[in-house]
Amino acid sequence: MAATVHFDDVEVGTELPTVTVRVRRETLVRYAGAGGDFNPIHWNERFARAVGLPNVIAHGMFTMASAIRVVTDWVGDPGALAEYSVRFTRPVPVPDDDEGATVELSGKVAAKLDDKKVRVDLVALHNGQKVLGKAQAVVRLS
């Protein structure tokens, strides 16, 4: 699938559509099964609190994967992603209720690069606080 966003049509400052992700305990169980990360901080509240966490927390890699959806949904082709990096700055606590936790994900084109690539800076917020730092993706456009 070819990228649907054209390099010449994109300007620095272009805001990508926001994505909201709801994370419930069920989400964590499914992610653990798919990814093989069964660390008890992701499913055992007593254990998570015993090691100093506020509650069970979402897998960092789940949060990272959710954030890149902003870019792949925008460009229309996950294969257009050339680079992606983040720093994990704050956990996403996931309460044991029907609501879970929400993470608001957004992105903005920060630079136009050579070879029809752009750098997108991403923001991931939970309860108004950044949970990923220096989240950046480089994507090749058509």
From TrEMBL:
It holds the Pfam family MaoC_dehydratas. SUPFAM superfamilies: Thioesterase/thiol ester dehydrase-isomerase. One of its GO terms (molecular function) is fatty acid synthase activity. GO terms for cellular component: fatty acid synthase complex. InterPro entries: Fatty_acid_synthase, HotDog_dom_sf, MaoC-like_dom. Residues 14-121 form the MaoC-like domain. One of its GO terms (biological process) is fatty acid biosynthetic process. It comes from the Bacteria. Transmembrane segments: none annotated. Belongs to the enoyl-CoA hydratase/isomerase family. This is Acyl dehydratase. It comes from Allostreptomyces psammosilenae. The lineage of its organism: Bacteria, Bacillati, Actinomycetota, Actinomycetes, Kitasatosporales.
